[in-house]
Amino acid sequence: MKLITYLENGREKVGALTADEASVRPLPFADMTAAIEAGRDALVPAGEPVALKDVTLLAPIPRPRQDVICLGMNYLAHAKEAAQYDKEAFQQEKPVAVYFSKRVTEAVPPEGYIDSHPGLVRRLDYEAELAVIIGKTAKDVPAEKAGDYVFGYTVLNDVSARDVQTGHKQWYFGKGLDGFTPMGPCILTADEVPFPPALDISCRVNGETRQHARTDELITSIADTIAELSSGMTLLPGTIIATGTPAGVGMGMDPPVFLKPGDVVECEIEKIGLLRNTVK
User: Fold this and answer.
1) Who contacts 43 (Cβ-Cβ below 8 Å, separation ≥6)?
2) CB-side exposure of 225: number of CA atoms within 13 Å?
3) Residue that is last in its domain, among 58, 81, 97
4) Distances from the Cα of 216 to the Cαs of 17, 43, 47, 141, 186, in angstroms?
5) Burial class (CB in 10 A: 0-12, 13-18, 19+), 56
6) Which residues pair with 101 in a beta bridge?
């Protein structure tokens, strides 16, 4: 099942896409977080389908209840290109997961705009990522049971201001600016793919492929991530975990190439869909 959040006649609603993905059937929940808390068995459409062309697509979770939890340098080739760009900022001393938090006041919808923040940001970059959505309260979850706690998956672009990120010696400000979290186009429920998902992930900028990998190439797996995080913190339903980005980001090019206003960034993951955004 593919779930979306959308606007119809000025009202925010959640729904399930029809099999042909041309229409959406509304679900009886106030928002996506409520739908996630209810569980997959409760996702029974309650209304007539509405054509997608007649609604406005939003990010599937427009206003996350907490910051997004992110993994840094979780693909080996990306870890190498990051260290080459700035060894002091990105070199890992130990082979452990790098976690950071991404502030999201409101997630950018598909076809929405990435704010380039002129005057503050000079080195704007993209990062296509598989985002995992937690489906039920997770505390002290063993790795072998982690899949039972996954509600579904979406596409997330971890937009990054590299100069702000490295200049502050920590990543929160450079990763959490307004307009830095495009997300969508939907949540693919976890029952649609085996766990852990092994899906093609890619990113194109102005039609040029920059990133391409598989989501099972993670250094720290989804199962190990959920197990480690839940050993010390409670993960609530609707928690979003961005699992890291493959090689091919702008700072990894020789010389580095950063985004500018007018650029179109397309992040795509097999079975989930395409997230397209324009820099302004």
Assistant:
1) 1, 3, 16, 27, 35, 189
2) 28
3) 58
4) 26, 28, 37, 20, 20
5) middle
6) 69
Provide the number of structural domains found in the chain: 2
Strand partners, 11: 8
Q: Are residues 53 and 162 in the same domain?
A: no
How large a percentage of the chain has pLDDT more than 70? 95
200 and 81 in one domain? yes
Reading the block at residue 254, the tokens are 């020789």
Mean pLDDT value across residues 162-190 = 94
Give the CA dihedral 77, 147, 158, 1, nearest 10 degrees. 120
Query: In the prediction, which pLDDT does 76 show?
Result: 82
Beta bridge pairs of residue 156 = 129, 183
pLDDT digits (tens, 9 = 90+) for 227-249: 999 999 999 999 999 999 999 99
Q: What amino acid occupies position 83?
A: A
CA distances from residue 91 to 73, 166, 170 in whole angstroms, order as listed: 9, 12, 13
Chain segment 53-66, per-residue pLDDT in tens:
999 999 999 999 99
